[in-house]
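Sorry to interrupt, but I need a hand with the structure work. Could you write out one complete protein record for me, on any chain you like? Just paste the record in under my message, thanks.

. . .
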Amino acid sequence: MSSERFDCLRQMQKKLLEVVRKFPEEDDVYLRRQCHPLLSPIAWHIGHCVYVEALWIRGCLLGDYTLAEELASIYQPELLTKTARSNVLPSPSELFGWAQELTSEHVEILASASDGPSQTSDQLREKKHIVEFLINHHAQHLETIAMVEWVRQQVSPEETPSNLAILKTGDDLISLKSVPGGLYHIGTRGGFSFDNESPQQSVELRPFKVAEMPVNNSQFLAFIEDGGYQNRNLWSNFGWHWRTGAGAECPRSWRRNTNGGWCVQALVQQDKNVGDLSVAGLNHYEASAFALWSGLRLIHEYEWEVAADLEILSGRGEVWEWCSNVFHPYCGFSPYTYWEYSVPWFDQRHYVLRGGSRHTEPEILRTSFRNYYLAGADYLFSGIRLAE
């Protein structure tokens, strides 16, 4: 195990602790408040990451599950609903204290533990795989924490975010690139990957075209101004039920300004015209309706990975890109010991997203990585890349 991977894990731990430190003690409510029904409070994500470290490092390496069992009642996702988590979380000072202490201890345990046998039926029990798993796990939760902060700005209209910009119409041209049909390989390329990226697959694809860039805000504005949210013919039954129930007339990160125009809450501060930025905060229903309106379609995840490997996707890493297909196991799939990471979500209700966003850690940006969320998730850094 190289020192560079230990350093990477330490950096992930440091970033998690800095989330707590940057808020004063009196901002206790911010860290423990749930700002969206499908998002946990920030403090829960910090504690959950410590819990997962205890489960794998103390449990798998040392055979001592005592601490993990103590933390599980709050920080194991299946044991406590998201809505119930706010009331049982520790104060920021208490959380920072024990999180700092335990993460330091966990790194020391890893440093002193010897590697397991090179040949094992469960590679996650080897130290190097545990380290890689934790790096990837923490990276995902750091992005989710950024989502919570982003959503909090959206539900607090009295606070004007510094990244709120006025949207203007612009070029609506969608440029497509051709990909030849043929036999391609998708999935893990070696090195660490989650179980749902394995085993590598051979897939036969027909020729297709893929958008050079993700859909931008100006292009999505044209959909809104053309009555896209009111046109029942563009929406699936589930999508229309969501739209009417939510009363949605635009992405949740957009607001009407006093002049009747649109303001967009960008993911990060940029000099770029906000209309040219990739539209973000869309759920799968909105993405699908836009695709139908445009005369194109959402890209399949196999097509996305092939195009990414061919390095023809510009704008990759600006937003997560909704794919047309549901999350499913690859042929020959075998779950890791952390069974709950993938298997429960092969339920025909979660859809795949590929790529990454401006808040995604580099560890996650491999082309084989598969993200997955419910179709109605409207709090993600998610957008659209079209195909034909």
User: Anything to note?
Assistant: Residues 151 and 379 are 6 Å apart (CA to CA).
